[in-house]
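ok so i was messing around last nite and threw this chain in just to see what happens. nothing serious, just curious
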Amino acid sequence: MRPPELVPLYESALRRRLELLGETGDERACARALLMELRLHRLAQALAAVQSDVPAPYAAAFERAFCDLCEERDERGNCVFRERGACSYDAGLALVLDTVEEVRGPFRGC
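result:
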């Protein structure tokens, strides 16, 4: 499949996972799900553009799509939330990589 054809697949797979996350009742999980939902289309586009059998390029695409919009990063790209372990990127990375495997299949050569 070509990247543009993958965008709706990523959007629906991510939306399903975020809905489950939001149903946990955990306020922090719900807040992270909401943040990711706001960036859903941008994230789906970034993931669809990656062609790899290993997770690192998808993690980098997620960081660019998610963190580049963060107002908490300083001029060097450092994030106080990430340093404290309170960043939605860190919490959402496993969800994103699971979604990639759902859409494209299992990673190889990890």
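not much to say yet. The chain has a mean pLDDT of 84.
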